[in-house]
Amino acid sequence: MPSHARRRWSGDRLAALDEIEGAHRAVGGAGRGRRFATQQINQAYAVLLSSQFQGFCRDLHAEAVDHLVVHLTPPPLRSVVREQLTVGLKLSHGNPNPGNLGADFGRLGLDLWPLLSAASPLTTSRQAKLKDLNTWRNAIAHQDLNPVKLGGRTELRLRDVRTWRSACNGLAFAFDAVVRAHLIALVGAAPW
Amino acid sequence: MSGAQVKVGDRVSFLVGTRTVVARVVRDLGEIGVGGRQLVVVEVSGDEAAGVEAREFDMPAEELEVIEPSAA
């Protein structure tokens, strides 16, 4: 069984993204007006995808910490360790970029990216796509669509966001498996 | 322990080690903890005069005692 975080990702979070896909299909008309409307939807889609993936990662981190500290004795130690593992998380306020993910999961003693790379040859490509997604997310959120930073263009295509979504989905499955294996190695019991 | 669901905005107290801490629930992470228990983010106020910054961290709801429910 997957983690609660991954089940929520595969349920509510992907459903929210599907609604944006539906909005894209629903835009009628033709020509410049439709192109402008779909561009706004594509941008909203990218921001929402980054946000939902951030939520998944934050959920997985919280869930992992809960499974880790529940094994600690004496029990009064649990809240002390929990505070140290979750205070000031980069994922609470920052993008789910590879650096922030590595830093937050690294606090659990997990070498996230090397382990993901060892687990799947697709990791390097997914990591690059995640970086691209967050670069665009920042550009959209700050309305700073600088072609120099965005691969020479300022127009976001639906297929770009779909590619990033597929990468995030692959990473969600891989994160779930790597964190599970790490917790088993640490506490000797399967968390999910 | 209250054992009940807590809500964003609730003022709560709990133990960190042997120290009693008072905090505000600032985020509900949902029922994603061990056995599906509710996890929340709490914020402990800082003390400007003492140079202590506010901090946020995760706690299981079942370890919190609500001392002042959210007005909402």
Question: What does this protein structure show overall?
Answer:
The complex is a heterodimer of chains A (192) and B (72). Chain A has one domain (4-187). The mean pLDDT of chain A is 95. Chain A contains eight helices and no strands. By secondary structure, chain A is mainly alpha-helical. In chain A, α1 (4-26) runs antiparallel to α8 (158-187) and α7 (123-141) crosses α8 (158-187). The relative contact order of chain A is 0.15. Chain B has 72 residues and is an all-beta fold. Chain B has one domain (11-68). Chain B has strands at 11-16, 19-30, 39-44, 55-60, 65-68. Chain B has a five-stranded antiparallel β-sheet with strand order 4-3-2-1-5, with no helix packed on it. In chain B, a hairpin with a 2-residue loop joins β1 and β2. Chain B is globular, with a radius of gyration of 12 Å. Chain B starts with 10 loop residues before the first strand and ends with a strand.
Short description:
The complex is a heterodimer of chains A (192) and B (72). Chain A has 192 residues and is mainly α.
Round the Cα radius of gyration of chain A to an integer and report it: 18 Å
* Secondary-structure content class of chain A: mainly alpha
Percent of sequence in beta strands of chain A: under 5%
Biggest beta-sheet profile of chain A: none
Give the total of beta strands of chain B: 5
